[in-house]
Amino acid sequence: MAMTYEDYLDEVTTLLTEMYDMSDEDAISEVVRAQAADYFSLHDDRPEMRTQERAVQDAKTLYERRSKARSATPPKRPGKARK
Fold first, then answer.
1. Per-residue confidence (pLDDT) for residue 71, from 0 to 100
2. Vertex 34 angle, CA 21 and 74, to 5°
3. pTM of the model
4. What's the 3-state SS for 24-46?
5. What whole-number distance in Å separates Cα of residue 58 and Cα of residue 78?
6. Each residue of 21-52: pLDDT tens digit?
7. Is 23 helix (H, G, I), strand (E, B) or coil?
8. For residue 31, how many other CB atoms are within 10 A of its CB?
9. Residue 53's pLDDT is what?
10. Rounded CA gap, 22 and 25, in Å?
11. How far apart are CA 83 and CA 78, in angstroms?
12. Which of 26, 48, 59, 72 could form a disulfide with 22 if both were Cys (CB 3.0 to 4.6 A apart)?
C-alpha cells in the first residue's frame, strides 16, 4: 500500500534512526539533504514507489551514501586557529 509523500519521508527518517542508530536530527538532515538533491522526486510523482519495502531500500541507500561521503572527508588537523 502506497503512503503519502510526507508519510514516506517520515518512514525513511524513522528507519534511519532504527536501522542505523542515527539521532533524529541526523536522520532528518539526511532526508532533507536527499530531498534537496531531488533524490525523492520520482517518489512524489509515482505513488507506487512509496512502499515500506522501498523505504527500507532508500534508508539503506542514504546511509551508505552518508558513510561513503564521511570516509572521503579528510580528517581535521590540529593546529593554530586562524584569525
1. 66
2. 70
3. 0.81
4. HHHHHHHHHHHHHCCCCHHHHHC
5. 36
6. 999 999 999 999 999 999 999 999 999 999 99
7. coil
8. 24
9. 97
10. 8
11. 15
12. 26
d(CA 78, CA 3): 47
In the prediction, which pLDDT does 42 show? Answer: 93
d(C-alpha 45, C-alpha 28), whole Å: 21
The pLDDT value recorded for residue 72 is 58
Q: Which residue bears the cell 542505523? A: 20
Lowest mean pLDDT among 1-15, 36-50, 52-66, 69-83: 69-83
Q: What is the mean pLDDT of residues 52-75?
A: 85
Count the Cβ atoms, other than its own, within 10 Å of residue 70. Answer: 8
Q: How many helices (H) and strands (E) does the chain have?
A: 4, 0
Is 63 within 8 Å of 19 (Cβ atoms)?
yes
In contact, 5 and 44? CB cutoff 8 Å: yes
